[in-house]
Design goal:
456 residues; 3 domains; 10% strand; globular; binds iron/sulfur cluster
Length: 456
């Protein structure tokens, strides 16, 4: 068993029975469920909207090469520069180079899972750069010394009491402060950071090919502030974030908001097509877009799974997943958790080490049902399982056990050779594999078909 699988089993058992964690997630998820329910009901034909969103992303991905080149051509014509990063090292090297060349020491950062993927803050700390998260949820997890728990709502695992306690501990704010008080407190603190930071770093919700634009969608205005004040704006985005046309945002922005946070549309929606031009009063003097591959090309080349590149990181599949709701975000030990994380993490971090994530699934299909771009997620998880077996990662006992299972269950007469006692002895192995909480029912002495025949 891989070290990662062992850890996953241990952590999931611990978290699933943690009643406080369960209560917090249940409360926060219930708010999300109610908001999304209202948001999707606003669509007169939700399925058609999802089919269109899926089509747009399919067009974007199948013409990935041309769309990316068009994006590069258009944004560079407007004064930005583009860096192609094959992997984490190249992306980090590019950011460090910009920081050093411009003698920059402070960064304000808006929420971006791509920067989490490359552990940007840790790498910036190595060269003495302070990188401050400015999205409230990200700010809270950074303060707690944690990673985001969820790709859209980073501190979903914390109750308002947990957050208030954290602020009291770190900043001596009054005990049991109301969320409004703490929000205003953070706003005040961040304003000073925005106006003095050397560099603003953002991700991109979409890269728009036909205008060479970075589309950002957010609720706090912190991404906009991170772009407006600092002298330099760095964008770090995965290559799959591309969409062909600006007019596609008319569907993509609202469908992302509806599935991500249950809003009709997010509060601030910004399209940035380059640095400040002559005569303009705000915006950065320099803009650099780092396009990150980091094994996305491998996914692209995979005929069975390239479709997962359509993902718009709305987080809906995480919230719908009964496994995620029970074991929580940290148990996955990966930047991307939940169903989408279980599909792509083996690509990013190794199928041998992370194929167990695809087995942590009841194949209920709820993730596929809720996905706004119609990615057949549960099917993708089955493909991962298949590939893991083909690659021989199941382990000796599992592989031999499955062979025996296939042999015995493929013919009724073979099964009937064993009596109830023998079958129950074999079933004990299953109990061990499924964990102490699971009870396997006792099998009858004779199979139903045997009983039927003898009763005749
Ligand atoms: S796979 Fe679909 S539901 Fe899951 S995060 Fe991506 S777009 Fe959202």
């Amino acid at each position: 068993m891989s070290e990662q699988k062992e850890l996953f089993l241990k952590e999931s058992e611990k978290i699933a029975f943690d009643l406080k964690h369960r209560a917090t997630i249940k409360f926060n998820m219930s708010k999300y469920d109610a908001a999304v329910d209202r948001a999707v009901k606003r669509y007169s034909n939700l399925d058609l909207a999802k089919a269109r969103a899926s089509y747009i992303k399919t067009l974007a991905i199948t013409n990935l090469h041309d769309n990316l080149l068009q994006f590069e051509k258009n944004i560079t014509a407007n004064g930005a520069s583009v860096v192609w990063a094959e992997n984490t090292d190249q992306a980090i090297e590019a950011v460090k180079k910009i920081m050093i060349e411009n003698n920059s020491k402070t960064v304000v950062k808006s929420k971006s899972m791509t920067t989490e993927e490359i552990d940007l803050n840790d790498h910036l700390a190595e060269i003495g750069v302070e990188s401050l998260e400015t999205d409230l949820g990200e700010y809270i997890v950074q303060l707690a010394g944690e990673k985001p728990y969820h790709i859209v709502t980073p501190c979903m695992h914390k109750s308002r009491q947990d957050i208030s306690r954290l602020f009291t501990e770190k900043f001596n704010t009054p005990e049991d402060s109301a969320p409004e008080y703490l929000t205003a407190w953070v706003r005040e603190k961040l304003r000073a950071k925005f106006t003095t930071a050397d560099v603003g770093i953002t991700g991109a919700n979409f890269l728009v090919a036909d205008v060479g634009g970075i589309a950002l969608t957010e609720n706090e205005g912190n991404a906009l502030m991170s772009v407006s004040f600092p002298r330099i704006h760095i964008v770090i985005a995965g290559i799959e974030k591309i969409i062909p046309r600006m007019q596609d945002l008319g569907l993509m922005w609202p469908i992302l908001a509806a599935h991500g946070t249950g809003q009709q549309i997010s509060v601030y929606n910004t399209l940035i097509t380059g640095p400040k031009k002559e005569g303009e009063s705000d915006g950065p003097e320099k803009m650099i877009v780092i396009l990150l591959d980091n094994k996305r090309s491998e996914l692209y080349a995979n005929d069975d799974q390239f479709e997962v590149l359509k993902c718009i990181r709305c987080g809906a599949c995480l919230n719908a997943c009964p496994i995620y709701r029970n074991v929580g975000g940290y148990t996955y030990d990966a930047t991307y958790s939940g169903p989408i994380g279980s599909v792509i993490t083996p690509f990013f971090k190794g199928l041998k080490e992370y194929n167990h994530l695809s087995s942590a699934c009841s194949v209920c299909g709820k993730c596929t049902e809720v996905c706004p771009v119609k990615i057949p997620l549960h099917h993708m998880l089955l493909i991962n399982r298949r590939d893991a077996v083909r690659a021989g990662y199941g382990g000796f006992t599992w592989n031999k056990g499955m062979k025996a299972f296939e042999y015995a269950f493929s013919k009724r007469s073979r099964l009937d050779l064993m009596g109830g006692k023998t079958k129950n002895t074999f079933a004990l192995f299953g109990t061990k594999a499924l964990g102490e909480q699971k009870q396997i029912p006792k099998l009858a002495d004779q199979s139903f078909s045997k009983q039927w025949t003898s009763n005749k």
